[in-house]
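User: Fold this; tokens only.

Assistant: Input:
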Amino acid sequence: TYYHLTTEHSIRRVLREPGAAAALLENSEERQVSRVVPMLRGRINHANTIAVAYSFTDVRFEETEVNDSKRDGVQLQYLRDVSPTLDVSVRVGRNNVDYTSSDDADYDETFINVGLNVEQRFVAYALRVGTAEITPQVGEKEKSSTFDLRLTSDLAGNLFEVFGSRAISDSSLGNGNDSFFIEGASFDGGTGDRDQIVRTAAGLSWSYQYLCSRCALVASVGQESSDYLTLSANDSEQRFVDISLGYQVNPRLDALFSYRNVDTDFTDPAALQADATNVVSRIEFAYQVNRIFELSLQHERDSRDTEGEGQATVATTGVSATLRFE
């Protein structure tokens, strides 16, 4: 039996009106996501394990407080080690989402899923499928199938990663500040609306570690769709291509150069937002002060071409500090 505690905190900028203007400061705001997950895990015998976890998440927007939320939940998992390279699991749980400004958008989520995890010499994959049901404070119950797929393959320095997922979220948490889909200010739900969202995502990344002794080259493509359960005019689809080059200046200092092209389409015929394409170029220097503390300096240039509005470009320079506890 052992106890494990995970804490996470992230800050990302999200656009208020994705189709109306460039990623200017007045058209975006910060979303902070803080999460704490204590877990207790114990073995029944050599092959069977049970774990119980509690999670608490706090989501806060810089200005649009109507989308601030708190969520907590409990999850029970049964895990069986079938072989040294294969395990299966079952998870059941319940989450409660509470918007701090009003009760109208509050909802409960219950879920159950089964998972399969395989690790071989050159490939590893994990698959989890299930169902989730939400019970909103106002409105009817909704059910959705869910899945999560992760596949990793390492061949002669070429690391391939493939993933796909389908899950229920909402216009407060969005994609949880997932950095795979966010580069600078990005669209992640209309911050003036409150609704539950079925999010479906897929992505592929390739990295090569032997370009030089201190270099790392990464190329990624991805697609993410958001289907609102009530406010269907906000339904959207994003596609992106990303290329980045990392260089280790010394053991403590890393440099990263990246380029990303993103297409955002609002798929509902009644959509009020305009489709947009933006190109983001970015340079970042990260200095590892010690094992848990990192400082970084970033400069970003975002050129956004909005249908019917023309093109606008904004340059942003920032400094960030990262503190990791686990």
